[in-house]
Every structure is written in C-alpha cells, then in structure tokens.
C-alpha cells in the first residue's frame, strides 16, 4: 500500500496530474510516470515492484481492462530484463558478534531479537513480534518437533 501511496504522490509532483479516483488514471499517466522515474535513475527492478502494486490496486478497483492491456505491462514500459538476483549480503560473523555483545549490554531484549533473526531467519519485525509465539514454540519443542512455525 505504501508503494501505491508514493506512486500517487510522485504522479502529482512529476506530472502535475490531479487524480482523485482510480477511474481517472490513464495508461498515458503511468507511461509518463515510468519515463520520469527512469530518467531519475530509479532501477528497473524497483519500478517493477512499484508497477506490481499499481496493477494490484487497479485490478481491485475493477480496472482489469487497463491491467490486462499491453500498455502498462513491464515489457511495454521498458522495465523487462531486470535481474531478480539480490544484492544484499549478510553481515560478517565478526560484526554480528560485536553488535550482539553491544546489544546484550544495552538491551537484552534487543539481543534476543537479534539472535532470533539470525538463527531462525526472521525479519526484524517478525523477531520483535515473536513473543506472541513463544508458548506455541515451547510446546512444539516439548513434543520433540524439530521445526517451529
């Protein structure tokens, strides 16, 4: 939803288009927006993500003809061919241990969240919210389960 909100805000700034309802959005508005964002140096992969959100909202608003047409697909917008390979790398074990020890001193709860993130592959928000699952996890471990959900 945030992507869609940013899309609308940028549409107003980039093209001075005052859209009040989804029904008013035209393919030419989207095409112009994408041209502007490409000119700003935004990567194709980022724009593919934005367009996925825009198409989802258009579909929910009943604009399936626009979504299913050829004008706003990634290929037509010049967004095809972007790599889906991730560019982010995990921090080194040395840096992780330094941060973990610092967190243990300053905030033991943060340290536990860091460990959950690292050991269970949780995102930060998931690690923080995992307190709600602790009882369930404990019961699963007591039953001898090796996988926690």
TrEMBL record:
Record carries keyword DNA-binding: yes
Name assigned to this protein: DNA-binding protein
Keywords from the named record: DNA integration, DNA-binding
GO terms, biological process: DNA integration
UniProt cross-references to InterPro entries, sorted A to Z: CB (IPR044068), DNA_brk_join_enz (IPR011010), Integrase_catalytic_putative (IPR024456), Integrase_recombinase_N (IPR010998), Putative_integrase_N (IPR024457)
Pfam family, one: Integrase_1
Keyword DNA-binding recorded: yes
PROSITE patterns: CB
SUPFAM superfamilies documented for this protein: DNA breaking-rejoining enzymes
Core-binding (CB) domain ranges (all copies): 1-62
Organism of origin: Salmonella enterica (Salmonella choleraesuis)
Lineage: Bacteria, Pseudomonadati, Pseudomonadota, Gammaproteobacteria, Enterobacterales
An MF annotation (GO) of this entry: DNA binding
């Amino acid at each position: 939803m945030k992507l869609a909100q940013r899309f609308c805000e940028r549409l107003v700034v980039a093209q001075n288009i005052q859209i009040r309802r989804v029904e008013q959005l035209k393919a030419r508005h989207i095409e112009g927006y994408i041209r502007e964002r490409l000119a700003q140096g935004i990567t194709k992969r980022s724009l593919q993500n934005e367009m996925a959100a825009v198409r989802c909202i258009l579909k929910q608003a009943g604009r399936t003809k626009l979504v299913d047409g050829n004008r706003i697909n990634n290929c037509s917008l010049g967004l095809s061919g972007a790599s889906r390979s991730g560019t982010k790398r995990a921090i080194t074990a040395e840096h992780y241990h330094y941060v973990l020890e610092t967190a243990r001193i300053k905030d033991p709860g943060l340290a536990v969240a860091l460990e959950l993130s690292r050991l269970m592959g949780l995102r930060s928000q998931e690690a923080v919210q995992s307190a709600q699952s602790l009882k369930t996890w404990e019961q699963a471990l007591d039953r001898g389960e090796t996988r926690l959900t």
